[in-house]
Design goal:
Radius of gyration: 21 Å
Strand content: under 5%
Structural class: mainly alpha
Order of helices and strands: EEHHHHHHHHHHHHHHHHHH
Number of helices: 18
Number of strands: 2
Strand order of the largest sheet: 1-2
Length: 452
């Protein structure tokens, strides 16, 4: 923890571990997203036939997406548990524990027997492991974001909180890239290999995260006795309005991703199987672009505030809802690539890059992880049903049903940001910049090190 202060105040320039913490958080979130997204990709491409072969093709797809949604249902519980312990015992232990559980469950999916080998036991085991995955993933996000945010310089918190958010598309790119490669393998190795390879990524992430220092703001709250005895109940009692705002803000981002990368992938390959490699490659390319866009969006929020970027992202999603399917229906590689680049690389990334700071700033230190995690993961649970709902709506109404679903989520997000106060407005930016300048003058060596 940095000891540099001005007039007894904790340093506004962040800690000496600020960069290491943000990068370590990003490494962890990339692995967590690799593991979680690998399941979504496998659900779209393989699990309907592998675990539900006695159903017809359409019902098998619905059942496959239903197992995907089960993991999302568990995420609020994981967020509540992880947030509770992160606000009570510290952010770091939760990050390490979540990584271990997530990695183990993902590896186990890679060695599961198929329906042809074990009958009904196979999908039962799949659902059980998926539930454990959901718990671990729900526990992870809040701790990672708050660690990066609380170690960061006050005037760069949007940027630093966006670094672990950039780990999301990195994990997505890794998962999509591995699935694109494994699709060239024979038989079950096409879907087993990506899950088995996750063990290597988990080991690397555990080594990195085990070396982190605890959040300075949590240590300060703990030392001064300002932690909550039960942060989960405290945030429900005091911050329920903020939780509702976070849910609305997160729903649009969750639907924007899973309606595109999971359902649209299935929609494209069902219509034209020859486009599967193109679609997987496009998701990989879009995710690589999203790494940069996520970081840039977070950085931009430090300059102009959080709300303008989020309003722009929600508006773009509204305008894109119908064109994304009109382009896809052309059944040509170029429009397919364009849809994923716009939907994931630009729209989704602009939202995730803003969320790190925006959602965290809705809560005080003592309940920050609990509140942000709970709202974030409840919305994720809702978003997890996007592929299932889209598939059902397309079965009933054709592709406009899925477009309307995407549009509805975008409208909810826009309403959510319009009723959310700016957490980093002009006056606050100027106040913090004055504090930063003051600390630069009083601690010139620390000031030079802080310019990241």
């Amino acid at each position: 923890m940095s000891t540099s202060t001005v007039a007894g105040r904790r340093s506004v320039l962040g800690t000496k571990d600020r960069v290491k913490t943000a990068v370590a958080a990003a490494v962890g979130t990339s692995v967590e997203n690799y593991d979680f997204i690998a399941y979504g990709t496998a659900s779209a491409l393989y699990f309907g036939a592998v675990f539900f072969p006695e159903s017809d093709r359409f019902v098998g797809t619905l059942l496959s997406f239903a197992t995907l949604a089960v993991g999302f249902v568990m995420r609020p519980l994981g967020g509540a548990i992880g947030g509770y312990f992160a606000d009570r015992a510290g952010r770091k232990p939760v990050l390490v524990a979540a990584m271990v559980v997530m990695g183990a469950s993902t590896f186990l999916i890679g060695v599961l027997p198929t329906y042809g080998q074990a009958g009904v036991v196979a999908p039962i085991l799949l659902v059980a492991i998926r539930m454990i995955q959901g718990l671990a993933f729900g526990a992870e996000w809040g701790g990672a974001i708050t660690m990066a945010y609380e170690h960061a310089p006050w005037h760069r918190r949007g940027m630093f909180a966006a670094i672990p958010q950039s780990g999301n598309p990195l994990g997505i790119a890794l998962a999509s890239g591995v699935f694109a490669w494994s699709s060239t393998l024979d038989g079950d190795w096409q879907w087993r290999t990506p899950f088995l390879l996750s063990a290597v990524l988990v080991i690397v992430a555990l080594i990195v995260r085990s070396r982190l220092s605890e959040s300075p703001e949590f240590q300060e709250a703990q030392a001064s006795g300002k932690t909550e005895k039960n942060p989960f109940l405290a945030t429900l009692r005091d911050d329920w309005r903020s939780i509702l705002r976070v849910i609305a803000l997160r729903v649009v981002e969750s639907f924007a991703y899973y309606s595109t990368a999971t359902y649209l992938l299935n929609y494209i390959t069902e219509r034209n199987p020859d486009l599967r490699p193109v679609a997987l490659g496009a998701i990989t390319a879009a995710s690589l672009l999203a790494i940069a866009v996520t970081f840039l969006a977070g950085t931009l929020t430090d300059r102009i505030g959080r709300r303008p970027i989020y309003i722009a992202g929600c508006t773009a999603a509204i305008l894109f809802a119908f064109p994304m399917y009109l382009l896809t229906n052309i059944d040509h590689p170029i429009p397919v690539v364009a849809v994923f680049i716009i939907g994931i690389g630009l729209i989704h990334a602009s939202l995730t890059g803003t969320q790190g700071a925006l959602l965290t700033e809705q809560f005080r230190t003592a309940t920050r992880t609990s509140g942000a995690s709970l709202g974030y993961q409840i919305a994720a649970a809702i978003g997890g049903f996007a592929p299932l709902l889209a598939a059902a709506l397309v079965g009933a109404f054709g592709w406009p049903g899925a477009a309307l679903l995407y549009l509805g989520a975008a409208v909810i997000g826009l309403v959510g940001i319009l009723v959310t106060k700016e957490t980093w407005g002009h006056d606050e930016r100027e106040r913090v910049r004055a504090l930063v300048a003051e600390e630069h003058r009083s601690s010139p060596h620390t000031g030079r090190r802080s310019r990241v």
